[in-house]
Design a protein that fits this description.
alpha/beta, Rossmann fold, 8 helices, 18% strand
Length: 213
């Protein structure tokens, strides 16, 4: 079975791990403080999950999810993720992470910063515009009327396709924004951010997003 390496065990990482284990994935989850801190979470997740260091999670995963604060991107292991698809859940919270001039000026996106840090990986935006609690509650079967949709973006078609498959398994439709340069459309304070929307509504919200806030 596919193994997902999760780097970051906060609200989003923990919820993604719960849903992934429910779906039958193996999960290796990590945080910056050491696997012993995650003993309770690992016990809750059961035998298909284990806690590890970020480097171990990166190496173990067939693909990885990076869900750490933006300021922690430099600490994401590079070599173990080479050649792998990496899902990025980040948003720019300058109050937490400090100001990034390239983001303030609309010259970069959070996902493009991660892609620069991981030059030999294939980064895709995923799960950044849904409340963490809704990851395990809002999914519905394919074909459900008004099914909730989530967006992705990547410079690599196979990375975007993996996100679309994972979204569908989690119970969501997909809207592909295009390259990472366009991923700002679904980030914080834009119309699509944390709104409950179907694919048509999400497409409309993406189109009317302002570049800078």
């Amino acid at each position: 079975m596919t193994t997902i390496g999760i780097i970051g065990a906060g609200h989003i990482g923990s919820q993604l791990a719960r849903k992934a284990v429910e779906l039958g994935y193996d999960v290796v989850i990590s945080n910056s403080r050491g696997p012993e801190i995650l003993a309770d979470l690992a016990a809750e997740l059961g035998p298909k999950a284990r806690a590890a260091t970020p480097a171990e999670a990166a190496a173990a995963g067939d693909f990885a999810i990076v869900t750490v604060p933006l300021k922690a991107i430099p600490d994401v292991p590079v070599e173990p993720l080479a050649g792998k698809i990496v899902l990025d859940t980040n948003n720019y919270y300058w109050e937490r992470d400090g100001h990034f001039p390239a983001l303030d000026a609309g010259e970069a996106t959070t996902s493009s910063l991660l892609q620069e840090h991981l030059p030999h990986s294939k980064v895709a935006k995923a799960f950044n515009h849904i409340l963490f609690s809704q990851i395990t509650t809002d999914g519905t079967p394919a074909g459900t009327p008004d099914r909730r949709a989530l967006a992705t973006a990547s410079d690599y078609p196979d990375a975007a396709e993996l996100v679309a498959r994972l979204y569908d398994e989690f119970g969501f439709d997909t809207v592909n924004i295009g390259p990472l340069a366009e991923s700002w459309r679904v980030e914080r304070d834009r119309p699509a951010y944390v709104a409950r929307q179907n694919a048509a509504e999400l497409t409309d919200n993406l189109a009317r997003a302002p570049r800078t806030i």
